[in-house]
Amino acid sequence: MKAKVKWTGYMSFVGESGSGHCVTMDGAPEAGGRNLAPRPMEMVLMGLGGCSSFDIVKMLKAAGQDVRAVEIRLEAERADTEPAVFTRIRGHFTVTGRAIADDEVRKAVRASAEKHSSVSKMLEKTADIKYDYEIVEL
């Protein structure tokens, strides 16, 4: 896997993945940024949400669940001193579909957190990560 990040002025950066996709990151104005894009640590948090959601959708579909949407809302706290790593992360999944089995969602959330999510496994080295979920019936 490869990636590169290029400084574009102020405190803005463009990252390019090895697969050729680009993302922009920016800093807060008080840090010299222009507040035009997510901060790098926000990208890490969104990466956690994307990785975990990918797992959940894949497992629910494999279990034959009629899942139509998955959303995760994340809140994180960071250390007061540098490096300001994440110390606490809470994620709330909303799984929407038809006749979604509670036990299948519970198993998928647990399996993602404990086994499948690469991002979660990295972040758990510094952060207490907890998830919960709700099911919305269509």
Descriptive report:
By secondary structure, this protein is of the alpha+beta class. Helix content is about 30%, strand content about 40%. The protein has 2 domains: about 1-35, N-terminal domain of TfIIb (Single Sheet), CATH 2.20.25; about 40-135, K homology (KH) domain (GMP Synthetase, Chain A, domain 3). The protein has helices at about 40-60, 100-115, 120-125, and strands at about 5-10, 10-15, 20-25, 65-80, 85-100, 130-135. The strands form 2 sheets. Strands 1-2-3 form a 3-stranded antiparallel beta sheet, with no helix packed on it. A 3-stranded mixed beta sheet has the order 4-5-6, covered by helices on one side. The protein is elongated. It starts with a strand and ends with a strand. The mean pLDDT is about 95.
Rounded to an integer in angstroms, the radius of gyration calculated over CA atoms is 17 Å
Number of domains: 2
Q: Count the beta strands.
A: 6
Averaged pLDDT: 97
| Topology pattern, helix = H, strand = E | EEEHEEHHE
CATH superfamily of the largest domain, please? K homology (KH) domain
What would the CATH topology of the largest domain be? GMP Synthetase, Chain A, domain 3
Report, as a whole number of angstroms, the end-to-end distance. 39 Å
CATH architecture level-2 label of the largest domain: 2-Layer Sandwich
Question: Unreliable stretches, pLDDT < 50, 5 or more residues?
Answer: none
Order of the strands making up the biggest sheet: 1-2-3
